[in-house]
Amino acid sequence: MALVFADRVQETTTTAGTGTITLAGAVAGFQSFSAIGNGNTTYYTIVSGNNWETGVGTYTSSGTTLSRDTVFESSSAGSKITLSGTSTVFVTAPSDRTVLRDASNILTLPAGTTTVPPLDFTAGTNLTTATAGAMEYDGTVGYFTPIGTQRGVVPGMQFYRLNSTVAGANTTSAQNILGVGCTLSASTVYCFEMFFTIAKTAGTTSHTLAYGFGGTATRNNAIVNVIRVGINGTFPYVPVTVQNYGAQANNTTAITTVTGAITSANFVEFALVKGTVSINAGGTFIPQYQLSAAPGGAYTTQIGSYMLIYPIGASGANTSVGTWA
Question: What percent helix, strand, coil does the chain show, rounded to 5?
Answer without folding.
Answer: 0, 45, 55
